[in-house]
Known about the structure:
Layout: H1 3-7, E1 15-20, H2 32-37, E2 51-58, H3 64-77, H4 82-100, E3 108-115, E4 119-127, H5 139-148, E5 150-156, E6 160-168
Antiparallel strand pairs: 1-2, 2-3, 3-4, 4-6, 5-6
Amino acid sequence: MTEEGASSSASRTLAADVISGRARTAGASQPELGQQAAGAHQGAPDEEIRDKVTIKMPADGAYLSVLRTATAGLAARLDFTLDEIEDMRIAVDEACAMLLSQAIPGSDLTSDFALGHDSMTVRVSVRCIAPRVPAGDTFAWTVLTALAGSVEAQAGPGDVLTIALRKSRDSSRSV
């Protein structure tokens, strides 16, 4: 699918851009969100990102099942347990619910997945009129932290609100 087709909110198309390979050697250009948030993405310093996947879709709750399915599939690729996979599905869904409540109608929701050897980082972003970072003392934020392990939120340039989730595979089990 062309970028022109993917960026048209009116057409309500769903675009997925998969960039495989080592992040440090891949010369592929990032989509617009990647350009805005590249400096903010931080994985574990000693872990190399193996694959990156970007999903861009309308900022509408009707499309969240696609994102939940993609999250589960990518977590399964990392040999996450069934409980860890379900935790990430729920965490991504909850993060999206927080973002969609502030999204500009007709805008796009962008999800960037960075897959390491035994961890997954998901950055979900949407454009807002006046983005407000979710409060860290709410029940929803506590649930996110319990499910994903590490959670951050930021209002960035261009009125983009981002929630980043990072979950590591349980290192106590052998693969």
